[in-house]
Design a protein that fits this description.
The structure is a single chain. By secondary structure, the chain is mainly beta. The protein has a single domain, classed as Leucine-rich repeat, LRR (right-handed beta-alpha superhelix), CATH 3.80.10. The chain contains four helices and 13 strands. The protein has helices spanning 56-59, 112-116, 201-208, 210-213; strands at 6-8, 10-13, 18-21, 28-32, 38-40, 49-53, 73-77, 97-101, 124-128, 146-150, 170-174, 194-198, 220-222. It has a nine-stranded parallel beta sheet. The protein has a two-stranded parallel ribbon with strand order 1-5. A two-stranded antiparallel ribbon has the order 2-3. The radius of gyration is 20 Å and the shape is elongated. The protein starts with 5 loop residues before the first strand and ends with a strand.
Length: 223
Amino acid sequence: MEGLKEWKTGYTVGKERANELMFPKLKCLTIQQCDKLRMVPCLPRAMLSLDIVDCDGLLSSHIGASFPSPIDYLVVHNSKLPLHHWRLLQQLHALRTLRIRGCSEIIQHLYSAEIFKHLSSLQNLFLECLIGELPTWVVELTSLRFLKLYDCKSMTSLPEWLGELNSLESFDIIFCQGIRSLPDSIQQLDKLQHIFICENPALKEWCELEENKMKLAHIRLSC
């Protein structure tokens, strides 16, 4: 629905004209190719999962805060909007899992880190099919426990600041053949229990070298 501009999620009832929200039991919602869409006045009250595909208008919109959103799982596909314009993220304080796939404009921007100051509950981050290196705003995610990189073919290295993700427990690197080594700072992650590597012979070989095994002594490695 390329021309759809507004979805009214509320209505008034009774003589007192009390405000009510539609879809009071809606848990999961996918919105695809509705680029102009805005929700008024706010997101459905019970929604836990939101999947946004080609809907930059919704990402950049301000959703009413009358009813705080309980959404804890957000998927964003194919956005062309720079990350610092994703105003929707600033309103999802309960968000625990964020999956970003094929969004070419999110990588590096001075103000991107400001977005994540509102996401103190975020624990799981999946970055898929991204262009460029690991974005610097990831270091702002102090509560991050699980990081997954999938099919990020242009990513050629991992930064030393990876060692600042003190809460990280699990790290997946899948179909990212450009990454051939892990940073020395991986030794600082004393909570990191597991690294899973898939379809990357060069990185697997690096991990198996005697001089690198000591860096990974506290980590279970799966290839």
